[in-house]
Amino acid sequence: MKYIVLGLGHFGKSLAVHLTELGHEVIAADKDLNIVEQLKDRITHTVCMDTTDREAMMSLPLKDSDAVIVAIGEDEGASLLTTALLKQLQVKRIIGRVVSDLQKTVLQAMQIDEYIMPEEEAAERLAMRLDNIDIIDSFKVSDRYSIVETRVPAKYVGMSLKEANLTNRYRVIILTTVKSTERNVNGKTVLHKEASGIASSDTLLQADDLLVVFGELGDIKKLIQKAN
User: Domain named RCK N-terminal: which ranges (predicted)?
Assistant: First the structure.
């Protein structure tokens, strides 16, 4: 697929590099020539340009892209101007980055339905980990539902999912189990995780495994707290 990433700060750079590594064609633009030069070997195409300049933006293959991501962070004015320009140019899919409530309101007024709040989401995930040491990671699906990675509760070690009966006990769904191992890569210890596939009633819960759980956060916390 083809993506255009506008803004190569920490978030934009990481997104563009990861998309390139996943095999997608990525055009990444930033007004800082030094940043563009540093990333030219890690991203499919890099361009030095002012994303608020209409003529410059029209030089990009906007109509051929599957999505244009406005990753500009600190300069909210430039971010909004860039987004407005993309809207005027009738780009079919625009994904905006939000760093404030006001910016979110303006994007909604522009009828930008897709936006991301990386700082807020990262803070929320960290808060959840600090709130409960048994939560390894989490992802908020909606206001009600989350996906949480947690340790297998000691009470259920050695049981199958059918025996543990977690869905009926706690109103949660176990999506998969994950094995976590340490590997030595270039002299550094790296944590490697590998999912076991879609969980079934025969899936065995082992002491060192992690559970990936879907449900309401309150129900997931009950599972964690009552089972240990």
Answer: 1-117
Q: Reading across the β-sheet that carries 209-216, which strands appear in turn?
A: 135-140, 145-151, 209-216, 173-185, 188-195
- For residues 89 and 53, the answer to whether their CB atoms sit within 8 Å is no
- Ordered by start, the domain boundaries in the chain are 2-116, 121-227
Cβ neighbours, 10 Å, residue 124: 15
What is the CATH code for 2-116? Answer: 3.40.50.720
Reference 205, options 160, 169, 150; nearest CA is 160
Tens of pLDDT, residues 37-62: 999 999 999 999 999 999 999 999 99
* Cα-Cα-Cα-Cα dihedral sign, residues 81, 71, 89, 53: positive
Cβ atoms of 60 and 29 closer than 8 Å: yes
CA torsion, points 82, 88, 91, 95, in degrees to nearest 10? 40
Q: What is the Cα–Cα distance from 218 to 58, expressed in whole angstroms?
A: 48
Cβ atoms of residues 225 and 203 within 8 Å: no
Listed as ranges, residues in the chain with pLDDT below 50 are: none
Distance CA 149, CA 136 (A): 5
Is pTM beyond 0.70? Reply is no
The DSSP secondary-structure symbol of 152 reads P
Chain CA centroid to CA 200, Å:
26
In sequence order, what DSSP letters do the residues of 50-72 get, joined into one string? -TT-HHHHHTS-GGG-SEEEE--
User: What's the CATH fold of domain 121-227?
Assistant: Alpha-Beta Plaits (3.30.70)
